[in-house]
Structure formats: structure tokens, C-alpha cells
Design brief:
This protein is an alpha+beta fold. The protein has one domain. It contains two helices and two strands. It has a two-stranded antiparallel ribbon with strand order 1-2. A hairpin with a 2-residue loop joins strand 1 and strand 2 (28-32). The chain starts with 20 loop residues before the first strand and ends with a helix. Bound molecules: zinc ion (ZN). The site of zinc ion (ZN) has 8 residues, from helix 1.
Length: 49
């Protein structure tokens, strides 16, 4: 899986959980890596995704 914002690869844990977060935009789920989560504003991310 890749971050939908910066296109970096997102790792998954052994429990198959992603190291990152999901943003729901409309009916689509977008994935954001922890780095983008830290450095970008969530509202801003949602707008751009
Ligand atoms: Zn990212």
C-alpha cells in the first residue's frame, strides 16, 4: 500500500494493520502515512486527496 498523498510505501504490522491512517473521502478510503499525518493538516489532506 502507498500513501495517497506522498506515494511513499506504507508498512503493515504483523497484524496486517497499516502504519498510517485512513481518511474517508466520500465513499473512498484514502491512506495517509504517519509522516504526512504529522506534517500536514488533516483538513488540508482531505481536500487534496
Ligand atoms: Zn505520505
Amino acid at each position: 500500500m502507498k500513501c495517497n498523498y506522498c506515494n511513499k510505501k506504507i508498512e503493515t504490522t504483523f497484524l496486517k494493520k497499516i502504519v498510517g491512517t485512513y481518511l474517508v473521502k466520500g465513499k473512498k478510503k484514502k491512506i495517509v502515512c504517519p509522516q504526512c499525518q504529522k506534517t500536514k493538516d488533516m483538513k488540508d489532506l482531505k481536500k487534496k486527496l
